[in-house]
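Consider this record:
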Amino acid sequence: MNKMKNIFGWLLIVVCSFFLLMFAFTIIILAMSVLKSGEPVEMTPKEIIGSSVGFLVVITLFIVGLKSGIKKIKKEKIEIVDYVGTLDINLKGKIKYEDYRNLLLGLTLKKPNYLVFICIFTLLALSLINASDIINLNFNFILFILLGFFISPIIVVWQSKKNYRTNRIFQEQLDYKLTNDSIHIKGETINSVQKWTGFYKKKETKSFFMFYQGEGVATLLDKKMFSDKELTDFRQFIRSLNLKS
């Protein structure tokens, strides 16, 4: 699995680097040709805007691909800082829907796949707009373009509402006990103890600490439930865990 990941990462790096260099070389050649001829470029404002935005979108795609390739081949070094204290934090509360929805939206919008989708859809939209003199764009085309930009966030909001409504853990007032060994979560229908060694990845967002048991499966700790001192102590503690970030 890791070998295939490295091969795909190197492939992304080579392909994206090649095309970025080709774009840079093309820009230099075009700029030199325009300066040498001394003649103004005859383009309508719509063509200038469309070409500029399209160029930026394509460059963004290749930069995202390059960064993704580097991330795939890069071996993450986990920095562990010893925690000498005794962790004993007791939390109580209920995760609010708005915080859960915003968490899912933030995670989705930051994914490279979403950015690639937006870039490709932007290119499609620009192509249709530039061809509007040839193709008679009606209201349905315009609606299709607008929906393309917002379809993913709409799906995430719908899915978050469904998850929140059907998952009992979000409907209950929960008690959390955090110790050096584990997280103990207790509610009306849940009584779970999860050892820190059972997680492989950690993530801190604006509102949550996330501890992943598997890909896409995480235990959430709402930061609003912590006091300032508890937040400081807990951040120090999780630095002692052998978990990816």
